[in-house]
Write a structure and sequence with these properties.
This is Integral membrane protein. Keywords: Membrane, Transmembrane, Transmembrane helix. It is built from 15 helices and no strands. By secondary structure, it is mostly helical. The N terminus is likely disordered.
Length: about 375
């Protein structure tokens, strides 16, 4: 009976993805595919709100569009299916080989939906709001810390909506907007502060499962060669690292969806900036440089946070300073050199009952604040 239950539970995310895909197909059949400006201005319409929620899934990569979001989830579902069956083409085992992707996805998605139910009214201001943060923060981290199960998944989702989302909202609206700071600083600082509070609370809750930080990377049966092919695969996997997937198939889905969205309507993804190619190029360069520079750390530790510039410094620099090649290269180089070791240093100093991702997001905030002005000076822009 338990085996039957597990197979049904594992099929649940696929059913959700099919429903989302059918919803998108219905929208296409109606001939409605607005650019970002139209989408942001029509949040009082049900279809626009649904698209905004789905787009939140790809928000962490600065793509903000339903196609890369659906591509990410479809690729992740395929990666999990391949991992469960031990397929050789699965790539890096999704969710670090824990097998917890269904629970991680369920908790993250519940946190996202609950956040919109509680805080979706903030979109009426007409300003961009960080409604996505619960999807890529505490809910997933709690599943990785305490294991699967509805108690953990629901607790993570509720705490994500009650703590992480309002913390990021407050910092973005009362710090970043008034001081004209990159909003990513408010997003990730809110994640870090709220998650620290949540993990402190969890010490008093009967969470069950393990209560200490899991290893940074799972044990591997076959030691990687860490050669050129591994480097390219690692760069690709970094694109889906922020939602805790870390898998090439998930990243391919994300990037394919982003490319398709840009081809169909260049002013739709990446907040209508039409800078999606520049952002993706900078992200790929930052990850490549990071993996090359910190390859010895990858070998020694099994995992290293080379993904950090992808979801913070590079896209923030491009959107703030423009898509000139100097901005792309400077932000990628400085992000690859500075952000990963800073994240590792912070994470190593966290108590065992807190997930190491808190150090990663703190590094994003500190590095973005420090690097963007330098990039502006080097390139003649204004950060």
């Amino acid at each position: 009976m338990r085996q039957i239950f597990l197979s049904q539970r594992q099929r649940a995310p696929l059913v959700i993805l099919v429903c989302l895909t059918l919803l998108l197909a219905a929208a296409l059949a109606l001939g409605q595919w607005p650019d970002y400006a139209h989408l942001a201005a029509s949040q009082d319409l049900l279809l626009s709100r649904i698209r905004w929620i789905i787009g939140d899934i790809s928000e962490v990569a600065f793509y903000k569009h339903e196609l890369p979001a659906l591509g990410l989830l479809l690729g992740a579902a395929l990666a999990h299916w391949a991992h469960v069956r031990g397929a050789r083409w699965q790539g890096f085992a999704i969710c670090y080989g824990t097998g917890l992707w269904p629970w991680l996805f369920a908790s993250s998605m519940m946190g996202l939906l609950l956040s919109h139910a509680l805080w979706g009214w903030t979109l009426a201001s007409g300003l961009w709001q960080p409604t996505f943060v619960a999807f890529v923060s505490l809910p997933a981290a709690m599943v990785l810390m305490y294991g699967g199960g509805w108690r953990v998944a629901i607790t993570g989702a509720v705490l994500g909506a009650l703590l992480v989302t309002p913390a990021s909202l407050l910092l973005v609206n009362y710090l970043c907007y008034p001081l004209r700071l990159p909003v990513v600083v408010g997003n990730v600082t809110g994640m870090a502060l709220a998650s620290a509070v949540a993990f402190l609370l969890c010490r008093c809750l009967p969470m069950g499962g393990r209560s200490s930080r899991p290893p940074s990377a799972p044990a591997v049966v076959h030691k990687p060669s860490y050669g050129p092919l591994w480097i390219l695969r690692r760069v690709l996997a970094d694109f889906s690292e922020a939602p805790f997937f870390g898998n090439e198939l998930a990243s391919l889905g994300l990037l394919a969806g982003a490319l398709l969205a840009w081809v169909l309507a260049p002013a739709a993804p990446a907040y209508g900036s039409q800078l999606l190619p520049h952002i993706v190029a900078g992200q790929a360069l930052a990850s490549l440089l990071g993996v090359l520079i910190w390859r010895r750390q990858w070998i020694a530790c099994g995992w290293y946070p080379t993904y950090i510039p992808i979801v913070s410094i590079v896209p923030a620099a491009v959107l703030t300073l423009g898509g000139d090649w100097q901005v792309v290269v400077a932000s990628a180089v400085l992000g690859a050199v500075i952000a990963p070791p800073l994240a590792a240093a912070i994470s190593q100093r966290l108590p065992d009952y807190m997930h190491g991702y808190i150090g990663n997001v703190l590094s994003m905030a500190i590095s973005t604040l420090g690097i963007l002005p330098v990039v502006g000076l080097l390139t003649g822009g204004n950060a």
